[in-house]
TrEMBL record:
It is a multi-pass membrane protein. InterPro entries: TM_pro_TauE-like. Residues 287-297 have a biased composition (Low complexity). The chain crosses the membrane at residues 6-27, 39-55, 61-83, 90-111, 131-162, 169-192, 204-223, 230-247, 253-272. This is Probable membrane transporter protein. Residues 284-307 are annotated as: Disordered. It comes from the Bacteria. One of its GO terms (cellular component) is plasma membrane. It holds the Pfam family TauE. Keywords: Cell membrane, Membrane, Transmembrane, Transmembrane helix. Its main location: membrane. The keyword NADP does not apply.
Length: 307
């Protein structure tokens, strides 16, 4: 979790991105335990990183974040109550593996473009809020409720592909939404009697002191060494855990199951590319208007860190 907490503070990938495969694939614990542990450990580590981000007054996409928080407030409990209990353990593993493998592959072939963005494309704040609302609602109810991670990746992807946001804006925003969703997930489970899987508390107790310091340290270190090296390493790990999952479950999945998983990764990548294409069209629509400013001024305009 020292590695996971660093990733949580320096990338759009929560600490559960490391904790989940270690618990589930290496220690062969239930996937539902990995999901609950992700919620629990991120509620400490990513909250600690969020406090550090806010204290440093780093720029954040506030309108989109506010919408995502409201959407997650509704979507995450609904997903925990009505979706996650019906997802088999194997499917939890596969959802995690597919989503993060596609996210890793996206960065392996688009990182230079993503890292080259400056500022953030300025849309109407109501539009940003509505986009965040739907992202929070849908990803909170599905990938976050099922795996314990993922809403940060969804919000981040919308920012860098659709809004052409600088990593200095997109990553802090993704950290804040994952911290919020993790605390919400833990609170929902305890307040409404769902509880955590057996073994979560013991693992959390061992890792919590590490992530409380490691996540904000990741925010601090990455500002000095740059985000590209860290993103490349974590992206490679995301692809590696997908291969590991297919190998570990090869007898259950069979050839047909492995092919379906590969098709699912391809479908996610196609979705990312569609989002990127849509973002290009939106920028073009703005720049084609006689009253619009130039492309460079649109893309480099950063909203104030605080409203």
């Amino acid at each position: 979790m020292a590695i996971g907490s660093y990733a949580a503070g320096s990338t759009p990938m929560g600490g559960g991105t490391v904790g989940f495969p270690v618990l589930v694939l290496l220690f062969e614990l239930p996937a539902s335990l990995g999901r609950d542990f992700s919620f629990a450990i991120q509620s400490i580590g990513m909250t600690s990183a969020s406090i550090f981000i806010l204290a440093r007054r780093q720029p954040v996409a506030w309108a989109l974040l506010h919408g995502a928080m409201l959407g997650a407030l509704v979507g995450t409990p609904l997903g925990i109550f009505f979706i996650a209990p019906h997802i088999p353990e194997l499917w939890i593993k596969l959802v995690f593996a597919v989503v993060w493998a596609s996210f890793g592959l996206l960065h392996l072939y688009r990182l230079d473009e993503i890292a080259g963005h400056s500022g953030m494309t300025e849309f109407d704040e109501n539009w940003d809020f509505r986009l965040g609302l739907w992202l929070g609602l849908l990803s909170g109810a599905t990938v976050a409720a099922v795996t314990g991670v993922g809403i940060d990746m969804v919000v981040y992807s919308a920012l860098v592909l659709l809004c052409r946001a600088d990593l200095k804006i997109a990553i802090p925003t993704s950290v804040l939404i994952m911290a919020y969703t993790s605390v919400l997930g833990v609170a929902t489970k305890f307040l409404f009697g769902h509880g955590m899987q057996a073994g979560v508390f013991e693992n959390w107790l061992a890792a919590a002191p590490v992530v409380a310091l490691g996540a904000p340290l990741g925010v601090f270190i990455v500002a000095r060494i740059g985000r590209k090296p860290t993103l490349l390493v974590v992206a490679a790990l995301c692809v590696g855990q997908f291969i590991w999952t297919l190998y570990a479950e090869r007898n259950v999945l069979g050839l047909s199951g492995m092919l379906i998983a590969l098709v699912a990764v391809a479908a996610c990548l196609a979705g990312f590319e569609k989002l990127r294409h849509w973002g290009g069209e939106l920028v073009g629509e703005q720049t084609s208007s006689p009253s619009s400013t130039s492309t460079s001024s649109i893309v480099s305009g950063v909203k104030e860190p605080y409203p």
